[in-house]
Design brief:
- It is a single chain.
- This protein is of the alpha/beta class.
- Among the domains are: about 170 residues, Rossmann fold (3-Layer(aba) Sandwich); about 60 residues, no CATH class.
- Helix content is about 45%, strand content about 15%.
- The protein has a six-stranded parallel beta sheet with strand order 3-2-1-4-5-6, with helices on both faces.
- Helix 4 packs antiparallel against helix 5.
- It starts with 5 loop residues before the first strand and ends in a 9-residue tail after the last helix.
- The relative contact order is 0.14.
- The mean pLDDT is about 95.
- Bound molecules: 6-O-phosphono-alpha-D-glucopyranose (G6P).
- The site of 6-O-phosphono-alpha-D-glucopyranose has 13 residues, from helix 12.
Length: about 425
């Protein structure tokens, strides 16, 4: 891809994370010379878009770069002829996330943004909107790449793969964040850390870790139980059990705490609900503070308070990916993509999160050294089956398929509870789920 006038559209541009993305674009301007950057949002997000947009303009001016920032409510104008479209939307805003987190807790089930019944509700609201965006991309920018950060990223990627022709890649900050932390733990440069990931978004395991060419998986698994800071801001930092890690023979991602330590995590969530509120409610407070800072006309650098969010480094992941496609770099990054046989225990057409070679054509999965054993495969297959059903339910608006999805999810304790949770989700999201009504 060599083109003088690079255009990028950021859908959900009024997000509090946008300054991080802008910082990433500024830092890599010489590899990624963006001419037009469209920040687009919906009417409810207008005020935020204006605040973030003005801040983004100050950041670019301070850096002295000729990037033109456009603020718009017209999504089609933003998408038309874009080279890359990124999506970071939250259908129903943080209020809907708070409901997603609270409903399962009523029934003593984990209530989380992306994992379990909370992620299910978010998928039902989000997938139809993402597919509308895909239709516009097919029509107005068919050669562009869709880079999706919208959660639940694995489910969204799967819907896009199965129901659209858009060239798309799903992205999460978890792999890059983990790689950076392994580098810190081993005092190595990040470029010297080589990890093999097996699984799907927010449900994956690292089965190989090499640092400077040396296999350090066992060493890391040994160090991990007592290590601090191996977590994200949005997940309680409970240490791993040494015997669990040894028996697993792989490093579980942070979200696997919800499966391996369900009781503890549930207790923590119920306690937080009483004290400080759910994570969405905590994030609402962080956002209010962030937007107050963003309003300051003297602020032209990303404030450090943004690090309080779980999505730290997401812009680095995004910028690395876009830069590699644009420059045909052929490097390896961990992204969400169609399985195509990489994990032989899953269907070919589902989304997986694995290492891929990134070039001008997109992301190509790298064959893995060793297929996952039953201790990983079992959980992976059941959660993937839940995802397949959820995508279908989100598109068809089928109550029965939705009920099956929730019923088989390991974090939903029974079929009765699945039905109660589903009914609450449908009742409390009527406006966002026309496909069910
Ligand atoms: C992690 C996840 C993201 C998620 C974020 C939530 O970074 O990988 O997918 O969006 O946490 O963070 P928040 O600050 O919104 O709770």
């Amino acid at each position: 891809m060599t083109k003088k006038e690079l255009k990028i559209a950021v859908i959900g541009g009024g997000s509090s994370y946008t300054p991080e993305l802008i910082e990433g674009f500024i830092n890599s301007y010489y590899e990624l010379p963006i001419r037009d950057l469209f920040l687009v949002d919906v009417e409810e997000g207008r005020e935020k878009l204006e605040i973030v947009g003005a801040f983004a303009k100050r950041m670019v001016a301070e850096a002295g770069l000729p990037i033109r920032i456009h603020l718009t409510m017209d999504r089609k104008e933003a998408i038309r002829n874009a080279d890359f479209v990124t999506t970071q939307i939250r259908v129903g805003l943080l209020e809907a996330r708070a409901r997603d987190e609270k409903i399962p807790l009523r029934y003593k089930c984990i209530g989380q943004e992306t994992t379990g019944a909370g992620g299910f509700a978010k998928a039902l609201r989000t997938i139809p909107v993402i597919l509308e965006i895909c239709k516009e991309i097919e029509e107005l920018a068919p050669d562009s790449f869709l880079i999706n950060f919208t959660n639940p990223a694995g489910l969204v990627t799967e819907a896009v793969i199965k129901y659209s022709n858009v060239k798309s890649i799903g992205l999460c900050n978890l792999p890059i964040g983990t790689t950076m932390k392994i580098a810190k733990m081993t005092n190595a440069d990040v470029s010297q850390v080589d990890m093999e990931w097996v699984g799907i978004n927010h449900l994956n395991w690292t089965t190989k870790i090499k640092v400077e060419g040396k296999d350090v998986l066992d060493e890391i698994l040994n160090k991990m139980p007592g290590s601090e800071g191996m977590n994200m801001k949005n997940i309680p930092d409970f240490g791993w059990d040494r015997d669990l890690l040894r028996s697993l023979g792989a490093l579980p991602c942070r979200y696997l705490r919800y499966y391996y330590m369900t009781d503890k995590m549930l207790q923590e969530e119920r306690g937080s609900l009483q004290n400080k509120g759910t994570r969405a409610e905590v994030v609402m407070q962080i956002e209010r503070e962030l937007f107050e800072l963003y309003k300051n006309p003297d602020l032209s650098h990303k404030p450090k308070q943004l690090d309080e969010r779980g999505g730290a480094y997401y812009s680095l992941a995004a910028v690395n990916l876009i830069t590699s496609i644009f420059n045909n770099k052929k490097d390896i990054q961990t992204v969400n993509i169609q399985n195509k046989g990489v994990l032989d225990c899953l269907n070919n057409d589902v989304s997986v999160e694995v290492n891929c070679v990134i070039d001008a054509q997109g992301a190509h999965p790298v064959q893995i050294d060793k297929q996952p054993g039953p201790q990983i495969r079992g959980l992976l297959q059941v959660v993937k089956a839940y995802e397949e059903l959820t995508v279908e339910a989100a598109i068809k608006g089928s109550y029965d398929t939705a009920l099956q999805a929730l019923t088989i999810h390991p974090l939903v304790i029974s079929a009765d509870v699945a039905k109660q949770i589903l009914d609450d989700i449908l009742n409390e999201n009527q406006h966002f789920l026309p496909q069910f009504y």
